[in-house]
Each structure stands twice: as structure tokens, then as C-alpha cells.
Amino acid sequence: MVAAIEHCVFCFDILVAHFEGREHLEPEFENEQYPLFVTWNSVHQGQTRLRGCIGNFDALPLHTGLKEYAITSAIHDRRFSPITARELSHLTCGVSLLTNFEDAEDYLDWEIGVHGIWIEFVDDYNRRRTATYLPEVAEEQGWTKEETIDSLLRKSGYNGRITDRIRNRVALTRYQSAKYVITYDEYIEHISRKPGKLSKKAVILANNEKIIPN
Fold first, then answer.
1. pLDDT in tens, 88-146
2. Which residues have CB under 8 Å from 33's CB, separation 6+?
3. Which of 27, 121, 174, 197 has its CA 20 to 30 A from that of 206?
4. All domains of the chain in start order, with CATH
5. DSSP letters along 151-179, please?
6. What span, in angstroms and rounded, lies between the C-alpha atoms of 119 and 152?
7. Out of the domains of life, which is the source (predicted)?
8. CA 39 → CA 17, 42, 109, distances in Å?
9. What is the CA radius of gyration of the chain?
10. What is the C-alpha to C-alpha distance for residues 26 and 23, in angstroms, rounded to an integer?
11. pLDDT in tens, 151-183
């Protein structure tokens, strides 16, 4: 299984249906089980801004897993304000299905642009901390491996001085992902091919003629 347009269309429709107060479309893909992440970005005047990204490392049935995390990543990512209906026409949705989990030998035992990484470590106060970046993050940010690890340590909530002693405490799991991304316009185009599936509100939003209330 690789991530496909149908996965992203389903996530978009979950979010649109949430705002419209209607039932979402039925999924058009098999209900296989994968660890997964759903990522929302806002693209405006050529600038891309992350609006939410949450997932689960446990293998989940795709029908229920994507339904849950389409909303969770859009509305409940604590790093960002909740996505609103006003933003729909500027959004992209990415679905990542995670595969090939491996224990790394150390915190540098992974490849930028190939592996996502999950770190786990215990700080000086015996607190267990964890954090992850998907495979595309380090490459998009232009980070080295060490810079990526340091950023993950901060993401995990660690605020102390980062030294090699701290980095060498990290237990790292590397993984790969299959990812597919679509825009809101591509979502509209896809479901417009299905008679009776495209709501009037969605058409209005796609044409930027009117904003529906939250």
C-alpha cells in the first residue's frame, strides 16, 4: 500500500463535513492498517505554513484512523490555533503511511530525506521525553542530522543545555513513509466527478465567492 489521492480526499471531506454539519463521504480505499500521520498546510501568496500535523505510531485501520486524525490534526494540534472554515480554500492535506521501522545504532544512524525519526530519552530529572519528525522535515528545513536531533529535543520539551552527553542518551527509531499531498482545489475536482457528492457550500468556497461560518 502507498498513500494515494483517495486518502487525502477522504481527510479533506472529513474536515469539510465537520464545518458543514453533514455526514462525510464513504472511504474509497481498503481498510488496511498502518501507522499514519495527517498534515495540514496553508499556502497563501506562495508561502507555506504548517497548520497541524498529528498521527499515531500504532497501526490503525485506515478508515477510522484517517477519520480521527484528519480532525485531530486540524483542530487539536496544541502548537497552532484550530483551522477554521475560512482557511479551507488555502489548505493542502498530506497523508503519510509509515513503514520500515528500525532501531538505530545511535542518534546519527539515519539518512536525511529518507528516514523519519522518533527519539526517546530520559532527562536529568528522570522524565521520559519523546518527539518525532516525518522524513521530509529535515530536508525541507535544510538541517544537518545534529540540528535535527537538537530541534527534536526542544520539541520534546527539553529546555536544558544540549550537549553530546544529552544527544548520546537518545534512543532513536528510524522509519520511512509513503506520502501523498493534495490541494483543496484538487479535492473539489476529484469529488466533482461523482454525481451528487459536491455540496453547494464546497463549490462556494472553491470559487471564493462566500465564506461559510465556523
1. 999 999 999 999 999 999 999 999 999 999 999 998 889 999 999 999 999 999 999 99
2. 59, 60, 61, 62, 65
3. 27
4. 5-99+177-206 (3.30.700.20), 100-176 (3.30.1490.150)
5. HHHHHTT--S---HHHHTT-EEEEEEEEE
6. 8
7. Eukaryota
8. 18, 10, 26
9. 19
10. 9
11. 999 999 999 999 999 999 999 999 999 999 999
Query: Which cell goes with 181?
Result: 499531498
* DSSP-derived secondary structure for 29-59: S---EEEEEEEEEEEETTEEEEEEEEEEEEE
Predicted confidence at residue 214, as pLDDT, reads: 34
For residue 17, what is its C-alpha cell? 463535513
**CA distance linking residue 164 with residue 146, whole number of Å:** 10
Amino acid at site 168: N
- Residue 183 contacts residue 64 (beta carbons within 8 Å): no
pTM (two decimals): 0.88
Per DSSP, the three-state class of 11 is helix
The predicted pLDDT at position 196 comes to 60
Q: Is 63 helix (H, G, I), strand (E, B) or coil?
A: helix
- pLDDT score for 210: 40
Half-sphere CA count of 137, side-chain side, radius 13 A: 21
Tell me what the mean pLDDT of segment 1-24 comes to: 95
Given a contact cutoff of 8 angstroms between Cβ atoms, the answer to whether 73 and 55 are in contact is yes
